[in-house]
C-alpha cells in the first residue's frame, strides 16, 4: 500500500483493514514526486532524509509501532528526476540498502523509468529490489524490455484506469513483455488512489484486476502457472528482496 509521507498515510487504518479482512497489508515510507514534497524534503540533504526513512523503518510510523515493509511510492514526473526528486530517490536507495527493503517508484505517465533505475542502481541498490511504476501508461515495449533485462520489475499497476489507457493496451504490453521472456519481472496492480476509483463511488474497485483483467489474460492464453507468477511469486520475490525464486 504505497501511500507515503505527506500523502494521507494512515497506518492504523491499514492495520484495521488487515485485521478485519485477513489480507496482509504492507505499509510504505518515502516521498512522492516534487509537487507533493513536504517541507522536510526541501530543508534536508540526502543523508538527513535517509536517516528519517531508516528511523521510520526500524522504529515504526508515527508512534504506532507499525513498520513499513517497502519504500515507495518515490517519484519523478519527467524524463529525468528534478534535483529534489533525485535527492529523495538517493535517500530511498540508501535507506533500502541500510534496511533490506525493496523500493517502488512513481514514473509519471510511465516516463523516466530508465533514469530512475540508473540513479537507484548508481547508489548501489540491486535492480531486483526496484519496481518501476506505471509502465502500463507508457506504450513502449522496448523500454519495458530494457528495464526487465537490467533486472528491475516492470509495474503494470494502473489496471482499470481507462481514462489513462485502455486495458486492451495494457494486455498487449504485458503479453509483449511475457513473450520477450520477462514474465518474472512483471507486477500487476490497480492504483486505487482516489475515492472515485472505489466500487462504492462508481469506480472499478480493488477487485477489477481479479474480476476482469485476469480473465482476459487467461483468454489470451495465460495458464495457471503464469497467473500464479504474476500475482503471487513475483510480488513475494520483490517484497522480500529475493533475487531468484526459492524452491
From TrEMBL:
Does the record carry Hydrolase as a key word?
A: yes
User: What are the protein's GO molecular function terms?
Assistant: hydrolase activity; zinc ion binding
- Signal peptide range equals none
Pfam families hit by this protein = PTE
- The answer to keyword Metal-binding applying to this record is yes
Which branch of life, at top level? Bacteria
Q: Keywords, A to Z?
A: Hydrolase, Metal-binding
Q: Give the family from UniProt.
A: Belongs to the metallo-dependent hydrolases superfamily. Phosphotriesterase family.
The entry's protein name is Phosphotriesterase
